[in-house]
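User: Run a structure prediction on this.
Assistant: Running it now.
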Amino acid sequence: MSKRICYLLIFLFTSSNIIYSQEFTHKENESFIILKSGKILKGKINFDRKIGDDFLISFNDTLKIDVDDIKVVSNSKGTFATYHKMIKKNKNFLYKNIFLKRIREGKVLVFSEYHPFIKDQSGESYQYYSMKSGNIKQVNYTNLKKSLFDNPQSANTLGQYDLYKKLSERIFWIGLSSTIYGILSERPEGEFITYFGIACSFSSIVPFFMKSNKLQRAIDAYNK
């Protein structure tokens, strides 16, 4: 009996990974919708405007499907996943399902926010990611440190990001405090300290930009 239960658990785990991988695997030009209920629809798929920024998915020019009911969409424009994001609207914060376009494949799937009715979206960036057997998460140091820890090159790149980030912050605060001290100081060297603080604050931009692409490079290293 125990062996049967063990085999069943292995089967369920393997099946779930296969299903998840298939959600983001499609033939070129194949169009389909995976609903949150698990149902798969194949046919002609388009984005239709609803009211304001809201929109629906049109299936075979007849059926209109709300974004809240969709998990994955794939058509000629790419493959998209829905993501529950907190946004600010009319001075209030609320959660809304948005579409993320898959822009990189591999052991780490990478996504960028996609807005169907904005024409120029060439500036795709590494905004969200997902390990093939996990949920979609935001690209940040804390999340990637946990997800990419088993790859030495990725871990090293993330370490560089953390180093440059802390260095930039420390240089900036040293510069700011020196500037304030120099302005308030009545000592002869007060003016020199003020200029030193201003220069120091501006120089913090160097490590700030040095860290800018480290998160993306950590993901790319993991996908090699």
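The two ends are 42 Å apart (CA to CA).
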